[in-house]
């Protein structure tokens, strides 16, 4: 008789139930931080409801109240599109953008919003909320604002992952903090191995280093619609995620800054990322870097 396979700790954490009140508390903290770190007119968010729609309920900044309680369905509007793509998306003018459906225009118009960015909050490979930043005028949403949003959403995902792990049975905060530190060390080691592989001239040794580095990936399948990165694109994104400039990445890999810039541009295009930070986040979500 076969022994029943028991889910590993990581699988239990991914399947854990996140108390809605805990998610709301963490979302509120993130909205305050986004409003403080950017000049958005309004930061707002909503949790995923049982129906699969995002119910808007939290707002930071002056609001007319037109969006409160609106349920955004997957694939529709900006937030629904972000959920569908599993990545953030920005538009210079919500009301005229051809990139989204316009099911919720009357609410957006009543609130007086135009330029907007929306980012899904993903925990355990599933979306649990969407965070928005919006302006009351049409304008380009630059990399600084998108990076601030992406950074705060990533921090939010990590906090919720800790809560999820604790709900799954990891009741020791020190243990979950140690797990997160270990993950960061794994990411650093992966980057070091990729750098080392680029410096080795022996093909067999190089292949073995890359094989060992590949064992640090979690094996997730690529998300629908996202292309697989080339080896050099993964190298560039992995090192960029550690805060390295194109010059520093080029020195580590023995390539010119211009070549690194080309790899980063190609990786961002394949991932649908607007910034380097978002590219790193999307590459991690799709299991292409640890």
TrEMBL record:
Q: Which GO terms describe its molecular function?
A: DNA binding
What does the UniProt keyword field contain? Answer: DNA-binding, Transcription, Transcription regulation
Task: Show the SUPFAM superfamilies listed in the entry.
Answer: C-terminal effector domain of the bipartite response regulators, GAF domain-like
| Ranges annotated as spanning the membrane | none
The HTH luxR-type domain, residue ranges: 222-287
Q: Which domain of life is it from?
A: Bacteria
State any GO BP term from the record.
regulation of DNA-templated transcription
Tell me the CDD domains matching this sequence: LuxR_C_like
The name this protein goes by in its record: Regulatory LuxR family protein
The scientific name of the source species is Actinocorallia herbida
